[in-house]
Amino acid sequence: MLKFSRWIAACAVLTVTSAALAQSGGMAPPQNVLQLSANGTVEVQQDLLSMSLTTTREAADAATVQTQLKMALDAALTEARRNAQPGQLDVRTGNFNLSPRYTRDGKINGWQGSTELVLEGRDFPRITQTAGRISTLTVGGIGFGLSNEQRAKVETEAQTLAINNFKQKADELSRGFGFTGYTLREVSVNSNQGGPVRPRMMAMEASAMKMASDAPVPVEAGKTSVVVNVSGSVQLK
Questions:
Q1: Are 110 and 100 in contact (CB under 8 A)?
Q2: Residue 19 burial (C-beta neighbours within 10 Å; 0-12, 13-18, 19+)
Q3: pLDDT tens digits for 82-101?
Q4: Is the pLDDT of residue 236 over 50?
Q5: Distance in angstroms (rounded) separating the CA atoms of residues 96 and 224
Q6: Are 73 and 93 in contact (CB under 8 A)?
Q7: How far is CA 146 from each of CA 48, 67, 81, 122, 132, rounded to the nearest angstrom?
Q8: Which residues lie closer than 8 Å to 33 by C-beta, 6 or more apart?
């Protein structure tokens, strides 16, 4: 029992001694460290067009509505696939909804549904002309964005601007505080577009989109800004 007590005491002394050594030999908190951030912004023309074509059907039973929607979508797909080209005109199906209609007392008195076809790509004339030739669906929305290729190119330009702005800002602030320069401690680079950009869809009334057969849908893209932020800390010297 005595030996065990002596062993505990020895361990306690060793622990205290190690803690004291760690405390006395610990690193001092960093001094003259400056936190800052800078942005790089590039304005670019949107080069990606997305068109949503939709239709709705109503009937007394669900099977009839589903069949009518399928026929309308199949006809639209057949027409759209004739002009499909990867990157220029990509075709995909969108939402497909089927739901009952209720009377005031909660009983089902019919069914309604909708289907969607999305045309997307960089070839605006090809997309708009294809949409004009589809007679079973009407345009429900138009949106613009950036293609992956355009976004990658512009982000590189914005990143270069952000880094240069960060370095210039760090140099100006270090000299403003009376130092001769700085060294980089840590840095992070972030873009405001972390993933593929989805065009913002703009709803339009179906009646406004009625047009002559084969007539292209009128569209006009705008510009958008790609912003890259560089933030971090520097050691003034």
A1: yes
A2: exposed
A3: 999 999 999 999 999 999 99
A4: yes
A5: 31
A6: yes
A7: 5, 36, 23, 9, 23
A8: 185, 233, 234, 235, 236
